[in-house]
Amino acid sequence: MTYRRWFVLGTIFALVGGLIAAFAILYGNFSPRGYVEDRYRRTAQYDISGNAVAYTSAKRPSQVAQEVTNAWQPADQYVDGSGVYLRYDDDSVVILPLAAGSLILLEKVSTAYPRYHSTVGNGWGWGRGNTVRGGGPGSGK
User: Fold this and answer.
1) Which residues are CB-neighbours of 46 under 8 A, at least 6 positions away?
2) Helix (H, G, I), strand (E, B) or coil at 81
3) What tens digit of pLDDT does each residue of 44-56 get?
4) Model's pTM, two decimal places?
5) Helices (H) and strands (E) in the chain, counts
6) Angle made by CA atoms 107, 50, 78, in degrees to the nearest 5
7) What are 91's strand-pairing partners?
8) What one-character-per-residue DSSP string does 64-117 give?
9) pLDDT average, residue stretch 99-106
C-alpha cells in the first residue's frame, strides 16, 4: 500500500513538473529582454553601434513602458519628455517616441549608462555597484 501511495505522489509531481516545463517553453519570458523580443517588431535600422538592439511599436512610449513594467518591475526608471528609461539588473530598456509609435532600445547597462547618463543623471543608479567599495575585513579602507 505504501509503495502505491509513493507511486501516485511521484506521478502527480512528474505531471506538475511537466506542465510547468511546457508552460515555460511556450510562454517563457525570463527577462525584460525576452519580453521585448517576444512582443515588439525587430527593426535593425535603428540599432545603435551594435550595442543597442532596436524594436518598434505602434503604441505610445507610455503605453509600451506600462506593458514592460507590468511584466517586469524595473530596478529604477526615469521618465521625461525625451522618453522612458528603465534599468534592470543587467539590461536597460529605453523607449523613445517615433512619429508613428515608439522605438524600444535593448542594451546592456554597461554601455547604456554612459550613453544616457546626461539624461538620467547620477541618481538613477546605473553603475552604482562599480564605484562602491566593500566594508569587510581587508577591503582596503
Assistant:
1) 54, 56, 103, 105
2) coil
3) 999 998 899 999 9
4) 0.70
5) 5, 6
6) 25
7) 108
8) HHHHHHHHS--SEEEEETTEEEEE-SSEEEEEEEETTEEEEEEEEHHHHHHHHH
9) 94
